[in-house]
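Exercise 3.2. Students should predict the tertiary structure of the chain below and write it as C-alpha cells, then compare their answer with the key that follows.

Predict this chain's 3D structure.
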Amino acid sequence: MTRTSILIIGLCHIVPALAQGGRLVDPTRPPHVAAQAVSGGEVAPPQGPQLQSVLISPTRRVAVISGTTVAQGGQYGDATVTAIDETSVQLRYRNGRRTLQLLPGLAKRERRAGLAEPSDRGSPR
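Answer key:
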C-alpha cells in the first residue's frame, strides 16, 4: 500500500468521529443527570437522603436510601420508614414526615384510554 492510500483510510476512520462533535451520554443515567451532561452543566451533589431503589415482594418491602438498605418499619438515621411503594418511601421523623421519590423529576399522570393520540395507539392492523 502506498502512503496516500493509508492516509485516505485513516481519514475515513477519523472524520466521522470528529463530525459527531458532542460527548456521548450514558443512556442508563437518571434523566436529570443525563440532561445536565448534554447541556454541559455541573451535576449538583444530592442534598439529604436519596431513594436509590425499592424491592417489593409478597413477604417484605425494602428500600435503598443513600446506600443503606432499610426494611419497612426499620430505622434510617433518626427516622422510621413507615411506607414503601413502587416509586416512593415515607420517612417519619420526631417533628414531621418526609417523602423520598425514586425519580424526583418525574410525575406519573393518569390518562384515559379514549383520549390517546392516534400515534399513541400503535399501528392499525
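Discussion points: DSSP finds two helices and seven strands in the chain. The CA atoms of residues 5 and 92 lie 70 Å apart.
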